[in-house]
Amino acid sequence: MQAWLLPYDLTVYAFGAIGGLLLLQVLVSDAVGILGRHPPGVPVAPDHASLLFRVHRAHANTNETLAGFVGLALFALGGDADPSWPTGRRVAYGATRVAHMACYYAGWQLARSVSFGLSLVALVGILVVGVMA
User: Fold this and answer.
1) How far is CA 47 from CA 13, 43, 56, 61, 92, in A?
2) Counting Cβ atoms within 10 Å, is residue 64 exposed (0-12), middle (13-18) or buried (19+)?
3) Could you read off the pLDDT of 87-99 as tens digits, one per residue?
4) Per-residue pLDDT, 43
5) pLDDT for the residue numbered 10
6) 10 Å Cβ neighbour count for 99?
7) Residues 69/18, Cβ–Cβ less than 8 Å
8) 129 phi/psi in degrees, rounded to 5
9) Which residues of the chain have pLDDT under 50?
10) How many angstroms separate the CA atoms of 40 and 44, rounded?
11) CB atoms < 10 A from the CB of 132, how many?
12) Helix or strand or coil: residue 37?
């Protein structure tokens, strides 16, 4: 790792983990679609009882928050924020996204909503740290 990135090593790993999470979600979505014989290019019916719908929504939801995560993380990095503050929030964002995915796959709606809310709190925390820097 480049020396100037060493204070932000957990941030770099958080970026890698989120990228890995997205890849995992694509693979799971494709596998569930193939196993369920869902025709490619056909929209998935909106039905929370369907695992295929839930895995597609979990992936779409991660994509919906990803730009905010990347932008805010770079904002905090560029603002020379103390590495420990935004890094902890980036790790929290990653952990809550994993929890959100697992809860969505399992069909646990309340836990899914809580984990989504906590991921938004982590994003707000990164914003606050960036503004304070």
Assistant:
1) 35, 12, 11, 16, 29
2) exposed
3) 788 889 999 999 9
4) 94
5) 81
6) 18
7) yes
8) -65, -40
9) none
10) 10
11) 11
12) coil
Half-sphere exposure for 88 (CA within 13 Å, toward CB): 7
- Grouping H, G, I as helix, E, B as strand and the rest as coil, residue 23 is helix
What residues contact 77, with CB distance under 8 A and at least 6 apart? 8, 11, 86
User: Coil, strand or helix: which one is 33?
Assistant: helix
Q: Please give the mean pLDDT across all residues of the chain.
A: 91
Residue type, 47: D
Torsion of CA 45, 24, 118, 13, to 10 degrees: -160
Tokens of 63: 């994509």
Question: How far is Cα of residue 21 from the mean position of the Cα atoms in its chain?
Answer: 7
In this structure, the number of other CB atoms found within 10 A of the CB of residue 46 comes to 9
Residue 53 pLDDT: 97
17, 39, 50 from 30: Cα distances, Å = 20, 11, 14
pLDDT of residue 86: 74
Amino acid identity for residue 133 in this structure = A
Tokens of 75: 């904002």
CA–CA separation, 11 vs 47, rounded Å? 36
